[in-house]
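lol ok so funny story. i was supposed to be doing the assay writeup but got distracted and ended up predicting the structure for this chain instead. priorities right. anyway since i did it might as well share w the group, maybe its usefull for someone
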Amino acid sequence: MGDGKYSDATGAGHTPPRVASLPRRRASRKGGIPLYYQIMRDLKEQIVSGKLGPGDRLPSEAEFTRRFQVSRVVIRQALRILDEQALIVRVKGKGTFVSDAVREDAAPRISGSLEDLIHIGADTTGDLLSKGVFIDRARGYYKGMIVIERSAKGTDSFLGEFAMLLAKQARSVTIPSLEIDQPDVRRAAHSSSVGPIDEDEIFYLMSRGIPREVARKFIVLGFLEPVVARIPLGAAQDRLRQLLEQKWPQTAAPIQQAA
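and the output, tada:
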């Protein structure tokens, strides 16, 4: 069972938990994406987006099977992953609920939703890099996964999730995961980190005559550049760099002088 918390709202004197209303849809058997993974991803997106709130009760397994037209084994596998990610909590005799661990607060929050690498064919390659920079009381949540199916022999896959915090109250969580059903792979690796700007890097740039705030900007832009450089269109790269530059308008003049 996951380590998420659940506030029991079913006892006397408490308001009964809201029963989650889910769209009726059938999991697609085309494209090779596992049925359990489709259902897990669909539920996860609704939880992270806030459509399903903390304490909401999910439908029973029987209701899930009717909604998605799959077996209970598939439903249980999808729910097991959500449980391990602390997104839901199972309470014996009462049901399955959205965990309090995903409770929203008043701070802005960014949630990654395009961080899953699913390998189905042989000799496939995946390389996914996510980076975020957080200021003020911003919150980030990156939960990516590499899925290597039994048919994906010879896979080479990497998942990287990195966050930089520019304020003491900013927070970010990065949790890359692996789910491997095929032992014969070239590589299946992940990496992650969360932390503030390295003060040694700031000191080095300042020792070269660069003002502190300009040094911070150089470091942040350098941190994000590997992601920007992956965009295949040069014009889009330049546009994104311009937008990032505009995040520090007050330091434009010092940067020109330093250059």
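The radius of gyration is 22 Å. Residues 197-259 form one domain.
back to the writeup now i swear
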